[in-house]
Amino acid sequence: MIVIYGIKEKLNPIKERLSDVIHGCMKNVLGMPEDKRAHRFISLDKDDFYYPGGRSDAYTVIEINMMAGRKPETQKALIKALFHEIDSQLSVAPVDVEITIKEQQPYQWGFRGMTGDEANDLKYKVNV
């Protein structure tokens, strides 16, 4: 699951395209299938979103929650792909994007009535 935060006046007009960019990177770098998109957009009023100095109102936070298993170089490749594609396709500069990857053990994920370590029919690889 991916959660994206930003100021609503900047985030709302681009959220569909941003979702496409994020999912494209997830597919290209992690091998996620087309139908495995789970994005949540949190559009905030400007007075509800404090962010570091030197950033514009386009400042966007992307939190990626995933099962543990991806190699550090794979995670770094994902982050770099996101910076590049968001800048080139949406003109949001890397200085205005913050990305965090939060990993949880497969047994800490619950979906389709089971835990992640019980799932043996995933259409993608976790250990990449």
TrEMBL record:
InterPro entries: Tauto_MSAD (IPR037479), Tautomerase/MIF_sf (IPR014347). Pfam families: Tautomerase_2. It comes from the Bacteria. PANTHER family: TAUTOMERASE YOLI-RELATED. This is Tautomerase family protein. It comes from Zhongshania marina. The lineage of its organism: Bacteria, Pseudomonadati, Pseudomonadota, Gammaproteobacteria, Cellvibrionales.
